[in-house]
Amino acid sequence: MKRAFLLALLPVMAIASTTASKADAIRGGTERDKKFFETVEGEWVGPGEIVAGKYKGTKFNCTFTGSTPAGKVGMTLDGGCRVGVFTQKMSATVEHSGNKGYRGMFLDGAAGKGLDIVAGNVVDAHKVVFSLNRNQLKGVMQARIPDDNTMTVTVSVRVDEQLVPVIGMNLKRVDGSAVGAIARK
After folding, report:
1. Quick one: which of 105, 138, 150, 162 could link to 158 by a disulfide (CB 3.0–4.6 Å)?
2. Cβ of 136: how many Cβ atoms within 10 Å?
3. Do 95 and 102 touch, CB atoms closer than 8 A?
4. pLDDT tens, residue by residue, 67-85
């Protein structure tokens, strides 16, 4: 009788163990994602260039403030880019939306003059990739943070079956301190 009870309980324990492992992996991924986004917090400045398309060769300088939403996993880069005497407001916001993954918008989203962020993935502690969409235009925005004070952002669009980089930015942290274990107040 005891053996029959243990044999009946074994599959339930295996399923519970697997479910707990998956939940831990999901939490670990979310914690890893949260840590990545916290590295974006702060003030960033640097040059950029349009590397393809009608305005190829146009150089600009950007200033952004990176922040993370309270109680959620995600980030906002808000600021602007200057070309000569003209400044264009720029922003990108993304948040994790449960089983829908990452969602957000670049500028005012596809409903306005921007793009929707329809998916995303924190690849590792230094890189995130988001899928961009606007009508038939599909693309990718990638941010890499190779060290505490450097961020590169590349926006690419899909042409036929290839991703073609169209915008590149090299940003440096200027707020004097890298965000790490100490939370901002």
Report:
1. 138
2. 6
3. yes
4. 999 888 999 999 999 998 9
